[in-house]
């Protein structure tokens, strides 16, 4: 019997780990006019899921599997460095570590977790998410789904503040791309074993660029 | 229990003078208390810049949290970012006696979580109108201190300060209301005295935090279910 309700807990946008302050590059993409309506928002979300989302999902899934090992720390350290190498934008690296630290602060505040307490101070977010899924009895597939879900719901919810769009349409877009999230989660699982150096590296260079530009803006609604 | 700073939240609507109140406290109390400030801005780090520019604290003692346009959430529902900012500052420049957490200007319903602060000040100003106190809300009714700011402007905006303060006291069941203006030193002294007392109580372990967000408890032993 596997856990289920814990997955909903970690995938819930109301999880108090500070995710609400981020738009995943949407704010700058709206500002530059690349995303301007429901159609371009959906493309943005799907593109994000297939690139960054897949990578995050693979790292979350693998961290979930690792968390069940007797000593997961060495592998988590390697994964942390591997994800750094797949995140060329310094601003994105910092955001990922900040979100990881916040999730870590929440989890260690919720309960005593010997493994989490031994993690370095600011691990990448998918590693913390994956490890947490493992600790709460969830499967790597669950961790992958949670990471993918987060990679699109954050920007979609931010969209209603950044664009002139009806929230029903943002959720319609999320519902339409849901099947592709399921497929991507299955693909992410293929990287649970084997060398961590072979983790996927699907990239979205424009997201790296907008993350860097966004970080220089003095006026912004979202932190990223 | 390890000693940590008193965490004092400052909430209230936009433009009522939260940053100015904090700068005033820093200016007047930095000689007696080790102070740090965490600001929560909505669009920019304007509040943090204002405090840095005022030169009342070193830059390392002023941190800005970006709230993703949700200032209310950052101090109540999801305090993680603020908690980390406070903890980091205490670790980096501590030990501190007092950390002031400034809420992004919000509405009358925003209050700090008891998980983030030990006590809170709710700031209104006379320019917002004498009737705001009567509109009530958890901050006005139950914050540890209600500050009615910019009282020097009252004659220009047709507000009767005494009446506003009296209505505040009535809405608060007698809990403290302070008529404040940074141009009136005696009111600033009162504010500092209140904070000094609170910091002393906190350091001595005598301060019991109360949460203005929770409904007020009325103790009626005779009707309590058994």
UniProtKB/TrEMBL annotation, chain A:
Keywords: Chaperone, Cytoplasm, Nickel insertion. InterPro entries: UreF, UreF_sf. The keyword Chaperone applies. It is found in: Cytoplasm. Pfam families: UreF (PF01730). One of its GO terms (molecular function) is nickel cation binding. Gene3D superfamilies: Urease accessory protein UreF. One of its GO terms (cellular component) is cytoplasm. The keyword Cytoplasm applies. Belongs to the UreF family. UreD, UreF and UreG form a complex that acts as a GTP-hydrolysis-dependent molecular chaperone, activating the urease apoprotein by helping to assemble the nickel containing metallocenter of UreC. The UreE protein probably delivers the nickel. Required for maturation of urease via the functional incorporation of the urease nickel metallocenter. This is Urease accessory protein UreF. It comes from Streptomyces diacarni.
